[in-house]
Amino acid sequence: MGYPNQQALLIISTFIIVPFLTYYITTILFHRNARSRARGKTPSTAPYYVPGIFHAFGLANTGPQKYFAQLIKEYGNFAPFYVKAGPQGLLIVREPIQVTEVLAASNAGAYIQALDKLFGLPPSALDLYNGNGVSDTVKVAFEKALVKPTQRHLTGTALVDNMETYISVLSANMNNKMFQVGTWTQIEDTWSFLQQVITRCTLESLFGTDLFKQYPGVVRDYWEFADATEGFVPGLPRYWVPSAASQVRDRLLEGLERWLKVNHSGSEFARIVDEDPTWDERKGSKLIQERDALFAGLKGIDLRGRAVELLSIMHEANSNTFPRVFWTLVELLRTPQLAKDLATRIDRYRPSQGAAYNISAITDLPLIDSLLAETTRLRVASIVAHIPSQSLKIGDHWLVPRNTPILMFSHDLALDTKAWEKARPSSVEKPLEDYWAERFILPNRSGSKANQRGQRNDASASLFSMEDLEPLNITMGRSQSLLLGKYYVRTLHAATLAILLSEFELQLCDPDLFDAVVPPVRETAFGMVKPLEKVAIRIRKHTKSGK
Ligand SMILES: *[C@@H]1O[C@H](CO)[C@@H](O)[C@H](O)[C@H]1NC(C)=O
Ligand SMILES: *[C@@H]1O[C@H](CO)[C@@H](O)[C@H](O)[C@H]1NC(C)=O
Ligand SMILES: *[C@@H]1O[C@H](CO)[C@@H](O)[C@H](O)[C@H]1NC(C)=O
Ligand SMILES: *[C@@H]1O[C@H](CO)[C@@H](O)[C@H](O)[C@H]1NC(C)=O
């Protein structure tokens, strides 16, 4: 009789009492360390139940996006703290000052991890990215391949040329859709519709139409890849990348390789001369051709390496632009008067039907900049990672051991009312949980009385400004590689709005239901912000025959 009872006791103590005790003790230690005024202390691990496993179950079951948000809700006031996926610890940092300190020390380590674990960069190419055992000549050639084509093609007037291509592709695509003048057409699922259209047009303007011939499923596969990998956390071991993600990733790389083999090999393709056009309908943009030719000439990069580079460009272009355009557009449509004013301002920079848009002037409209900044703040939840190669002091008290992956979340800073209020009091006149299109607009102080309160903000009487607020903007991680440069997303966002608002009339079908489709901001720490339900709009062509 006694024996089974003992066993039961043993089981109870192992599975209930030990975890309970562990939790109790780690909670006490956690708070004691957080309160301690010692200098140079190492952050503690957030309380856990099972030693050795730590937070691995929670991370796996809930997914990192939600799980980090839960931990932040519970222990956020005591950050920085470790979350441990088994033996691997990840440090969560939240205080704006500490985030700035981490970013100041950041390097390309987290980006290279993404290339390796997410994009499938071959190990032979990793040395090149890490700079291990690479000769100076190769290093210089590699830097050139990374930086030169982007500088040459995505700044100044060349950027404008590239955007005009995108605009004509997008305009043609939208006008092929049989929308009517006068009669409304209803789009039931605006997210899917715009995702399809914008991705197609972005890819066409970068890669040309031959890509779709070699790889008809590229748009669908790309979004499957993006969805499967949105929970990726640099610093977590490779087996945390879902196998579905690696499968679709390999399909994408094979498709890109097919295209490279058929259309980008032999002696012809690398001969790119100054007279070549910025864009060729079949070959795509000169930027991509030139960049790929430089990579193809590098020792250490094979066909797979070139395909990885193309996939990471595709990812940067699509994941950064489409969600921003979607949210800016639907948020704008909630305030029809503002949408109308913006359309009028855009029209000033396109004096007649058929004339080219003055894309630099449209991109510079303060309201468009403010919309982009507000969308990025509230509707884009990024994770920024840094893996310091030296131990790092943060704040007055903490010392982070080297090689610790440090994680920071853009939403964390985006919703930190105290920090915003301190940086610029007028920025929190409306709560940070709300979308406020004009949050970043300041009156032009050197302007006249024209812009006193209550009067409409006019382009000449108001300014877009991020002054004092920069430390609270970490969306892209300052030193993570920007493959497409810092102007691409901003210009493409403005160009897309210009086409949609000035060539079409758009209305939300159910403005009253809109609040219910917006995901609650504090429930996921990062990951793509998608509407919870379908958002329907109605659309018709503008009547502008007289213009
Ligand atoms: C790409 O390859 C296809 C198939 O060989 C060919 O028809 C097409 O003309 C090529 N495109 C270019 C721009 O050379
Ligand atoms: C675009 O607009 C800006 C600002 O109004 C102006 O300075 C520039 O000359 C215009 N560019 C073209 C090509 O019309
Ligand atoms: C601000 O107002 C002054 C005076 O009206 C004007 O000269 C200046 O161009 C304005 N600045 C901007 C960026 O609109
Ligand atoms: C926020 O930071 C990113 C990355 O540094 C930068 O590209 C972007 O322009 C910034 N946004 C604003 C509105 O300043």
TrEMBL record:
InterPro entries given in the database record: CYP450_sterol_14alpha_dmase, Cyt_P450, Cyt_P450_sf
Coiled-coil features, chain-numbered ranges: none
Cleavable signal peptide: none
Family of this protein: Belongs to the cytochrome P450 family.
Single annotated GO MF: iron ion binding
UniProt keyword Phosphoprotein, yes or no: no
Protein name: Putative cytochrome-like protein P450
Keywords: Heme, Iron, Membrane, Metal-binding, Transmembrane, Transmembrane helix
Transmembrane spans: 6-30
Domain of life (superkingdom): Eukaryota
Originating organism: Ophiobolus disseminans
